[in-house]
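Hey, quick one: can you model this chain's 3D structure?
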Amino acid sequence: KDDYEEFLQSVPEKNRMYLQQAMDGVEYHQTKNPDVVFAYDKKEDAILFNPEHPMFSAYDFHTVMTHKLGHRIDQYFVGSYRQADFVTAIQEGRTAIDANPELFVQFCRQNDADGFLSDVLDAISEGQYDFPIGHGSGYWNRETKARETFTNLFGLETFEDVQKLSFINEHFPYLMHSFRTLGFYI
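Sure thing. Here's the predicted structure for all 186 residues.
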């Protein structure tokens, strides 16, 4: 947590405030569940982690914490899946990906090591294309698409990833507009 708090000093003020509150308010539970490396459990309001998982050390801690805390921010402050404009923007984004899926897959393969963008595009396309990181078609529904899209856009914003945010804004301007008007902005 000390390392993450130090990292928070380098992120945009709004993101830092939300992430700090989320980090201070959430519980942390170690698990031996072989299906979990890191997860946010909204029922327990806890970040689960399994240091014995073979992939544990492969994760970038700042990225994974930002993502998991982003889920908590969505849970308590945003409720992205209840925001009709945001949900509609995600659904309408599918047309752009379907028109030229290779453009989006190739961009992610070349530029998306952290997975934030790949997961947004996987959500929009409901797992129909081979993005480097995603959840697959069986995971996606109205709620999961909104939650993952919010959390990943929040992550890109936290890391001030101008390249990927510009790419999303170019191809999905309605999505970026609806993200910026979700109401959690202060």
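One thing worth noting: The longest strand covers residues 27-30.
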